[in-house]
Amino acid sequence: MDYRDTPEEAEFRASLREWLAAAIPAGWDKIDDEEAAVRLRKEWHRTLYRAGYVGMSWPEEYGGRGLSPVYDAILNEECGNLNAPPLPSVGYIGRAVFTYATEEQKRRFLPPLLSGEASWCQGFSEPEAGSDLASLRTTARLDGDHYVVNGQKMWTSGGQYADWCLLLARTDPDAPKHKGISAFLVSMTEPGVTCRPIVIASGEAETSEVFWDDVRIPVDQRLGAPGEGWRIAMTTVTYERGPADIGFIANYRRTLRKVEAIAAERGLLDRPETRKALARAYVRGEVLRLNCMEQLSLRVSGRPPGPEGSVAKLLWADAEQSLQHLAMDLLGADEMTGVAADWLSSYFTSRPVSVYGGSAQIQKNIIARMLDMPR
Amino acid sequence: MLKEVAAQIAGSAGPANPGDLRTLDRAAAWRSLAQSGLLALRTRDGGSPAGSGVEVAVVAEALGAGLVPVPYLGSAVLATELLALAGAHDEAEALAEGGSRTGVLLDGDLSALAVLPGDQAVYGWDVDGADGALALTGVRGGYQVVRVSLETGFVPVPGADLTRALLRSDGPVGEASPTPVGSPLSAEDLSRWEALALTAIAADTVGVMRAAVARAVAYSKERVQYGVLIGSFQAVQHMCAEAYVQAEASASAVNYAAWAVDELEPAEALLAARTAKAQCASVAREVTETVMQVFGGIGQTYEHIAHVHTRRALTDRQVLGDEGVQLLRIADVRLTGE
């Protein structure tokens, strides 16, 4: 595989750099107010979209540009280098819609998803269905030309700010548990939808729980066939684990630079142990980036993401969490005394990385299955 | 194509058990490598290498996977590249034909190419069938490649790696014996050499790790305890999955470093190579230990193949610098821009 940009990619990268230098909102990473931060992220989504940088690898008829996913990776890389706000993660929900939706649904839902006019959340997990997602209990009962949904969803990231939800619910209680699930595209403003933020250990309301009480969904907002929900969910999480769809590489590089700056400010760069630890963090990030590039190259060659995405997910969680350990070691007491409260918060934010999108243990189960180990 | 050829040679030239190391026809394996042109990849053809860094890594990985006991790294990669960079093309060609072999001399902790004259004993590494080995000597404005005869002043030592020959000099190698070869090397030449050398050793390690993990996984599908295959236990599955992840992560780093050897500027290629070497060195011990653990009691015995993987991986880890050495050099680049 060739790691170098083609002339077209190089040209794209250069013009992107120029654009980013002017477009990145000054002081965006100093905003403390959560609602203001969410507004900024939504605005950044629309700014990126207007400049043509969202959904570049999607077909033009759905609002994309029909480019290779390599362009998404370049965007990721340059945003990390230039300290841009987080990229919108339209990929993983969008891909599921893109793969399973009817033509009419695609035209209705994909353009606003890409443009940032509508933001989405994912209604998968439940209090009693975490890793064992297929045992979910939320029901969708057919009633004329509507489904009536009842149940509770957990860990719905960004649910409180989302306009739409990709929802999984059981439509056939008598079918085997993987077979009786269907997927729906539901407005979060429907009567009967109640969203309560869940404050995670960091103190931030990163995620939410959503209650569904007799929520009526038109039949034409079912995604895929009845009973196809499990397959759709698996497509979604595979892309959620995917390399170019989530801005984690850019984030990682930015955080590493900050950790290096902490070591420099505190005069720790003379210590060989610190130098080794910082270099190890760099190596972890590089290994992750290169592993993702290889997967991306497979995807460009037409192969959909497979279980090898679990390798990247495990590498990512390990890199992210090790980097937070390193920051904690360098900051010492400051992280415990409120002097570096933001780093304590980042530390706790790194913990669920090995839980969401399939826990580290689930990823290892998937790899064992890929290795064809006995069940 | 190259991959298939290398894998085929490795398949017939590697040991299934440690006992095979006494009886394997190493000369035949070397002849096959020479006849397939695999020893000639780093000879120069009109100035540029006949084969790319990527091709070298493919061959090194295949031979590592097969635990093949021939000095491909020592003679066909490390020595041949030094000769080619020094412009000693006839000598490089002679090695490529397979008739003679040359190894390299490493300093006392195996972490660098020996610089002569030194004040310590040095090691001839991967010198099976070699009558000489290459080292460096300082000259004005750079280094000169020198050749040291291994005929006298060296004794075989029982190194950890059962698949590579190791010699130790009786004492410091003086100024009298080395013979200059080719023209002096620039700092840039040496960076190029080190980038290829580190990458090839890391590729060998990836081969060792991947093959070891595959062996452990295969065993988990045969071995029955408590009436079930041990591979059905989640504890065993997760051990294998973790080892697999680390081996694959290492492969990603090596693939890039191998590409970088010929495609990037020497400093960038060297950073990529150090990254790959640091990654492999950081995980190789644990991966091969995990494999021994999956094999249980039998995996701890001398008759079993598992420790042959471990021994080769541990030696690869040390040669030209373990992760500690690589990380400090990476830190120099990242933190002070050296």
UniProtKB/TrEMBL annotation, chain A:
Keyword terms of this UniProt record: FAD, Flavoprotein, Oxidoreductase
Residue spans crossing the bilayer: none
Stored InterPro entries: Acyl-CoA_Oxase/DH_mid-dom, Acyl-CoA_Oxase/DH_mid-dom_sf, AcylCo_DH-like_C, AcylCo_DH/oxidase_C, AcylCoA_DH/ox_N, AcylCoA_DH/ox_N_sf, AcylCoA_DH/oxidase_NM_dom_sf, Mycobact_Acyl-CoA_DH
Matching SUPFAM superfamilies: Acyl-CoA dehydrogenase C-terminal domain-like, Acyl-CoA dehydrogenase NM domain-like
Residue ranges of every copy of the Acyl-CoA oxidase/dehydrogenase middle domain listed in the record: 121-215
Ranges where the Acyl-CoA dehydrogenase/oxidase C-terminal domain occurs: 227-370
Domain of life: Bacteria
Swiss-Prot/TrEMBL cofactor(s): FAD
Sequence similarity: Belongs to the acyl-CoA dehydrogenase family.
Name by which UniProt lists this protein: Acyl-CoA dehydrogenase
Organism: Microbispora amethystogenes
UniProtKB/TrEMBL annotation, chain B:
Every Acyl-CoA dehydrogenase/oxidase C-terminal domain range: 200-332
Coiled-coil regions, chain positions: none
UniProt xrefs under InterPro entries: AcylCo_DH-like_C, AcylCo_DH/oxidase_C, AcylCoA_DH/ox_N_sf
Domain of life assignment: Bacteria
SUPFAM superfamilies, per the entry: Acyl-CoA dehydrogenase C-terminal domain-like
Entries under Pfam families matching the protein: Acyl-CoA_dh_1
Keywords: FAD, Flavoprotein, Oxidoreductase
PANTHER family attached to this UniProt entry: ACYL-COA DEHYDROGENASE, ACYL-COA DEHYDROGENASE FADE28
Protein name: Acyl-CoA dehydrogenase
